[in-house]
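Supplementary Methods, section 5.1.

A reviewer requested that the exact input to the structure prediction be made available. We therefore reproduce it here, unchanged from the version used in the analyses.
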Amino acid sequence: MRIALLGGTGNKGKGLALRWAPKHDVIIGSRSAEKAEEAAAFCEELLSEEGTTCTLSGEENVEAIADCDVAVFALQYQHAMPTAVTIKGNLDPSAIVVSPIVPIAKNGFCAMNPPRNREAPHWRYKVFFQTTRSYRRFTQHQLRV
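The structure derived from this sequence is encoded token-by-token as follows.
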């Protein structure tokens, strides 16, 4: 299975890459191909130190989704819609889109900060509803501290 991790250069993307790369073809995506290649090399080095072989590469987001079976949005909420709009035309209609994104912002502490117009859970439907075979998302819960 080919898995594209869009915005996969952060902790979330690298963590998923380290877990999935030993069994799947993983492409780390970013707005910058250089940054994506660095993240892929970092993950590949960590896995090789453990004696694990893997298939990892780094590319720009638009190229990362070419022929992928699964596209994972491993980026921050504020970057989700611009990235989705950018890749929409290149995403295979049979691809599964996974989005663990929630509108949480760091402000000293992590705080749930949903948009006032309640667009947070709906941006994915607006962009992908007509083009993807299947849609998955993690359950969102508001945290009270």
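The helical segments are 11-20, 33-49, 61-64, 77-87, 123-128. These observations are discussed further in the main text.
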